[in-house]
Design brief:
The chain has about 500 residues and is α/β, with parallel strands linked by helices. It folds into three domains: about 1-30; about 35-135 and about 175-240 and about 415-490, Rossmann fold, CATH 3.40.50.1820; about 150-170 and about 250-405, no CATH class. Helices cover about 45% and strands about 15% of the residues. It has 18 helices and twelve strands. It has helices at about 1-30, 45-50, 105-110, 115-120, 150-175, 180-195, 210-220, 240-260, 265-270, 275-290, 305-310, 320-335, 340-350, 355-370, 375-385, 395, 435-445, 470-480, and strands at about 40, 50-60, 70-75, 85-90, 120-125, 200-205, 225-230, 295, 300, 420-425, 450-455, 490. A ten-stranded mixed beta sheet has the order 1-2-3-5-4-6-7-10-11-12, with helices on both faces. It has a two-stranded antiparallel ribbon with strand order 8-9. Strand 6, helix 7 and strand 7 form a beta-alpha-beta unit. Helix 8 packs across helix 10 and helix 10 (about 275-290) packs across helix 12 (about 320-335). The N and C termini lie far apart (about 70 Å). Keywords: Hydrolase, Signal. InterPro entries: AB_hydrolase_1 (IPR000073), AB_hydrolase_fold (IPR029058), Pept_S33_TAP-like_C (IPR013595), Serine_prot/Carboxylest_S33 (IPR051601). It comes from Nonomuraea longicatena. Pfam families: Abhydrolase_1, Abhydrolase_4. This is Alpha/beta hydrolase.
């Protein structure tokens, strides 16, 4: 009798589940069946390339699809050979918060004519981003991802500022902010698929875009076609633990850069040895903590100076640009009148003033995807533990963010465990998504293959760093669906 009762209960639950699935499909029917009206993008580069743009309406909250809606902007570059067209390929260049409308043009440059001929390339500004309906927390500074300082005074200042950033978002956006998450963006992708009349989606994602792609394969495995994930995030560590792993990786990259710079002391005058160059950088941060460094019209303190280094260490080809940047900072710290280079000027403005709507959605997604510790002392202790081994980046990698003061996520973190085929590309010295993260995603997606670009410091490969081995693997997979027979190791050209 117990077995019969258990069976009946299981059947009742199953029936309820099926009924709920059918009801959900019915609720989304008006979104799946909407007409997509393509028009000029109103951008010279996109229009000249033949790209067309449109807006798709999606539920703000998929748990209440009959409620409020929001809009998502998309772009399309049609397959070059309609007779051979096999479907659509969406792309996401990273972030979260990055615009993807232009991804069609960017990644197309690394694709073979065969791939370009057979796919409609679809760009997307994820919900909250760019031409999609935006969120804007009205922040007085740029993004929330900066160093929490070098001492207790700086840390306490960071705590107050991050709490204020979270409060501003809550005050301005209210409960709407809770629905700008990766899971909902993945659901938006499926609405786009249906509205375009497609059965499945092929996809190229870079950096954060790999997490979005992995979540999509978990939520919609039967809608996933050929998936490429470049510079991958371990979904079990997203996002706070991913940032934590960036500390050691960037300290190692800084050592590599310091050795390169020391060999060019006559040009940059930052030190004759790796140790001297690194010491110069650390002194600059300590000085900025006491008295912010004035460079051009900006004051640079210990919270943001490490981030100016961090942004350049992603690519070894930027070593010279980073050395020139540090030379400018050193001159400014010595009281010299320094006119920042156009590149440095743009980055200072972007980081310290920023685009509030872009940084707002980045915070909303990161904080809304996964909960983090709420006690500031947890971060303070982690920073102190990291100080000896991570003197430059420990305050960033272990620092507090607005997520510690954010409302609790409305859904749990997505657990990715599936057998959807995918191609994962990872460099061994990636400073943003460590090599171990790519290997972890390879394990989580059991039918995937990992392409390792060995002994290269680079974040993002396809379309950014020419490499014949990687490009062949990616283009072969997109062209005919063939994954490498086993994990593959590539070398720098």
């Amino acid at each position: 009798m117990k077995r019969i009762a258990a069976l009946l209960a299981a059947l009742t639950v199953a029936a309820g589940s099926l009924t709920g699935t059918a009801a959900a499909a019915d609720d989304l029917a008006r979104f799946h069946g909407q007409e997509v009206a393509w028009k000029s993008c109103g951008d010279p580069a996109l229009d000249a390339a033949g790209v067309r743009c449109a807006t798709v309406t999606v539920p703000l909250d998929y748990a209440r699809p009959q409620g409020r809606t929001t809009t998502v902007a998309i772009s399309r570059l049609k397959a070059a050979d309609p007779a051979r067209r096999r479907g659509i390929m969406l792309a996401n260049p990273g972030g979260p918060g990055g615009s993807g409308l232009f991804a069609t043009l960017h990644f197309k440059q690394a694709m073979t004519p065969e791939v370009v001929a057979t796919y409609d390339l679809i760009g997307m500004d994820p919900r909250g981003v760019g031409r999609s309906e935006r969120i804007d927390c009205g922040w007085p500074v740029g993004h929330m991802l900066w160093s929490s300082g070098v001492d207790r005074e700086g840390f306490d200042r960071a705590v107050r500022t991050q709490a204020d950033l979270a409060r501003r978002c809550a005050d301005k956006e209210g409960d709407r902010i809770a629905h700008f998450t990766t899971r909902n963006t993945a659901r938006d992708m499926d609405v786009i698929r249906a509205a375009l009349g497609e059965e499945r989606i092929s996809y190229f994602g870079m950096s954060y875009g790999t997490y979005l792609g992995a979540v999509f394969t978990q939520l919609f495995p039967h809608r996933s076609d050929r998936i490429v994930l470049d510079s991958a995030i371990d979904p079990d560590r997203y996002m706070a633990e991913t940032i934590r792993t960036q500390g050691p990786e960037n300290e190692a990259a800084l050592d590599d850069w310091a050795a390169w710079t020391s060999e060019r002391h006559a040009e940059y005058r930052l030190g004759r040895t790796r140790k001297q160059v690194r010491a110069r950088v650390e002194r600059l941060i300590e000085q900025a903590a006491k008295t912010p460094i004035r460079i051009g019209g900006y004051l640079l303190d210990e919270h943001f100076l490490p981030i100016l280094l961090f942004t350049q260490l992603t690519d070894a080809r930027r070593d010279a640009a980073l050395a020139a940047r540090v030379r400018q900072l050193a001159d400014a710290a010595e009281g010299k009148q320094v006119v920042p280079s156009p590149e440095l000027e743009a980055e200072l403005s972007f980081m310290l003033k920023g685009k509030p709507e872009e940084w707002s959605v980045q915070a909303a997604v990161i904080c809304g995807d996964a909960a983090v510790p709420r006690d500031p002392e947890v971060y303070w202790r982690a920073m102190r533990r990291s100080k000896a081994s991570q003197p430059v980046f420990g305050g960033y990698a272990n620092g507090i963010t607005a997520c510690a003061f954010w409302p609790k996520p409305v859904e749990p973190r997505t657990v990715v465990r599936n057998d959807v085929p995918a191609l994962i590309v990872q460099t061994t010295h990636d400073t943003r998504t460590a090599y171990a993260e790519g290997k972890a995603l390879r394990r989580a997606m059991s039918a995937s293959r990992l392409v390792t670009l060995k002994d290269v410091r680079m974040h993002g490969v396809f379309g950014l760093l020419p490499n014949a081995c990687v490009q062949k693997a990616v283009n072969t997979y997109f062209a005919d669906g063939t994954l490498p027979a086993a994990d593959l190791t590539c070398r720098a050209d």
